[in-house]
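A common beginner's mistake is to predict each chain separately and then try to dock the pieces by hand. The better habit, illustrated here, is to supply every component at once so that their relative placement is modeled jointly.
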Amino acid sequence: MLTIEGFKQALRHAQSEIEANKDTLTDLDRAIGDGDHGINMSRGFDAVVAILDDEYASLGELSKTVGMTLMSKVGGAAGPLYGSAFVKAAPKFGDATEADFALVKEALEEGTAAIKARGKSTAGQKTMVDVWEPFLDGLSESDDFTSKLDHLVNETEGMVATKGRASYFGENSRGTIDPGALSSSIVLKAIMKEVD
Amino acid sequence: MKEMAPAVPIHLASGLEDGSIGTDVTRILEAIETVDKEALILSDIGSATMNAELAIDMYEGDKNIKFYDGPIVESAFVAAVSSGNGMGLDQIMEQLKMT
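With all components supplied together, the output reads:
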């Protein structure tokens, strides 16, 4: 079950993991982007942690507030993408104060749809979609979430980017893990850890 | 733009609160608040474009706000001069699509 407290814990955990991987995210983004993903995600999740001291009546309310915070604080493309994911997941959580695996999965599927719509992207373009969509596809409660996510992140290494800043690198984008895929795995791992 | 179309109001909604590089959708929404009836949003690349589209989706008022996805310098000149010549937003959008 994901409780409000568990969701908050997941976001705090995501923040500390992003902080720990800040340089890696920035280095990956420097190789095939504009080198600000670590800094942007860190700024965004620092702002998210700051809103967690408030009381929330439902998972939906918390998810929406997290999304709005990310939208305005991240600064790069990750802001509208992650922000839209949490905002669009919010109605799925609704007034619920706890969510079982099935509801969390549905909410994350809404988030995936929001990321795809906002970024006008589909799977296979070497973006965060390549983690969100295949991760949720056929996901069952007994799966090893961490190894599935790690595998998907590594899969982006061999892809050629056709969306986002990395697409300007064309064939040269092959051989580098997508930074958005890595940050997505960090956020999704943190959430799934609290669902158990 | 100020030389060619001095009467056309242009708002800057780029950068973050602390002055660093990037785009903040709330700054775009604030800029929308300051306009009279209609406005054209232009962006450069990446997150600016995504945030402009997001701002339009989030805006709930009844002003006519449009986004044009094109080269920012050229588009800004066409839009500013057209606006200075008395064209409305919908006409300017048509104008931009032709250039």
